[in-house]
């Protein structure tokens, strides 16, 4: 019996396993196992909405035992080691052997990125998002009269989206409680010269303008070197006061992946060929954030889903002796949400923002939810949220008009 193991239940692993299951249901001599350190598929782009108390965590999770057929073994376990010689995964629930392996374990925050980084908050799981939600709820409801100082480290998609969501949540609290008069300061620190440096300059310009509209202080071209009880120290010696620090930069591959002897890049991500096979290992594939996929710049749900399906299809081709196909990413638009009132969309070489982009973002993410009832729940949540929005989210006319100017809505040549 051939044993196929998919490691990880994020976008890449989930869709790889679903593709394999659909193709293998009629085959009795192939065993499919999905190993994950969590019992549910989590719609991770919406974790920030959970952390800000915009969405219920149950509305963005799908229990794995409900998502797969009984013929697929779902093992909730934490992998500690890959033994390539014996073709075995060592987990905290015993050993699992494999003939074919699709690696999609994701990545982890680099806790050595700066001194004290391990103490920073990170909304990268349901548990941590709920912890942040509860912490913010306690601050907003029972906080003392001291200023609210927040700092977000990293201005890639994660950092920008969380920064805007946090600012939106605070404005909502102020709108509901006019008597609150605490000073609020949100700082966003990025080592590169602009926010959203992996996106087009137009997307970066839109995000910069809107974050400034929300009152966020931007510190680009600066690195954090240390975190203390009172805030952050930057590489130029300046200090940022912050009682609440969020670390959303510096993701790396898991140490146990590199320790297995598999080829990795400087960030610990697996080196793969165009067919998504790990270099030098014909029966091992790598997808998602854990893989250094050639020719792919964004690291988002679209890439992960497409790569997961392609890896599964190539594995199936190998089972029957067919040729593999190289992975080619189909760009279906680049979304960045900017809080509860705005979003930016890069589509067909043009960048847009405003209500149309916000609606497209919401509808697109709703369509990606794996089950119909979740789509309905998510739509109901967002419709209710939009219907109850206070007046503060109406963008100033100057900001609306700026979005239509050349260089703000269209990609410049060259």
UniProtKB/TrEMBL annotation:
UniProt keyword terms in alphabetical order: FAD, Flavoprotein, Oxidoreductase
Pfam family, one: Pyr_redox_2
InterPro entries xref list: FAD/NAD-bd_sf, FAD/NAD-binding_dom, NADH-Q_oxidoreductase
GO molecular function (one): NAD(P)H dehydrogenase (quinone) activity
Residues annotated as domain FAD/NAD(P)-binding: 3-308
Cofactor(s) listed: FAD
Signal sequence extent: none
Any one GO biological process: aerobic electron transport chain
Membership in a protein family: Belongs to the NADH dehydrogenase family.
Full protein name: FAD/NAD(P)-binding domain-containing protein
Native species: Lujinxingia vulgaris
Organism phylogeny: Bacteria, Deltaproteobacteria, Bradymonadales, Lujinxingiaceae, Lujinxingia
């Amino acid at each position: 019996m051939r044993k196929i193991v998919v490691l990880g239940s994020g976008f890449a692993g989930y869709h790889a396993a679903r593709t394999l299951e659909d193709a293998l249901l009629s085959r009795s001599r192939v065993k499919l196992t999905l190993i994950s350190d969590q019992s549910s598929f989590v719609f991770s782009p919406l974790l920030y909405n959970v952390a800000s108390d915009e969405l219920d965590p149950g509305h963005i999770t799908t229990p794995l035992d409900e998502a797969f057929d009984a013929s697929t073994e779902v093992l909730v376990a934490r992998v500690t080691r890959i033994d390539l010689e014996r073709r075995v995964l060592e987990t905290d629930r015993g050993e699992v052997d494999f003939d074919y392996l699709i690696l999609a374990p994701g990545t982890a925050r680099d806790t050595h990125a700066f001194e004290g980084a391990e103490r920073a908050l990170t909304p990268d799981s349901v548990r941590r998002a709920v912890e942040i939600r509860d912490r913010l709820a306690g601050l907003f409801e029972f906080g003392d009269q001291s200023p609210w100082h927040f700092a977000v480290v990293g201005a890639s998609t994660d950092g920008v989206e969380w920064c805007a969501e946090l600012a939106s949540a605070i404005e909502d609290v102020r709108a509901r409680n006019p008597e609150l008069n605490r000073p609020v300061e949100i700082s966003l620190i990025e080592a590169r010269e602009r926010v959203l440096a992996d996106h087009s300059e137009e997307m970066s310009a839109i995000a910069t303008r809107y974050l400034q509209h929300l009152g966020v202080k931007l510190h680009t071209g600066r690195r954090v070197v240390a975190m203390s009880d009172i805030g952050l120290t930057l590489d130029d010696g300046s200090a940022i006061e912050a009682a609440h620090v969020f670390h959303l930069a510096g993701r790396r591959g898991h140490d146990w992946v590199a320790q297995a002897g598999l080829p990795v890049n400087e960030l610990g991500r697996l080196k793969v060929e165009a067919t998504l096979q790990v270099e030098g290992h014909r029966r091992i594939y790598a997808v998602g954030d854990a893989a250094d996929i050639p020719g792919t710049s964004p690291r988002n749900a679209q890439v992960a889903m497409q790569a997961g399906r392609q890896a599964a299809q190539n594995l199936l081709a190998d089972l029957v002796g067919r040729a593999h196909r190289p992975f080619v990413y189909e760009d279906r638009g680049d979304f960045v949400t900017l809080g509860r009132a705005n979003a930016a969309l890069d589509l067909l070489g043009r960048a847009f923002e405003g209500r149309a982009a916000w609606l497209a973002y919401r509808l697109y993410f709703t369509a990606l939810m794996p089950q119909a009832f979740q789509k309905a729940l998510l739509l109901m949540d967002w419709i209710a949220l939009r219907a109850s929005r206070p007046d503060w989210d109406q963008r100033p006319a100057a900001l609306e008009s700026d979005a239509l100017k050349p260089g703000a809505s269209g990609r410049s040549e060259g």
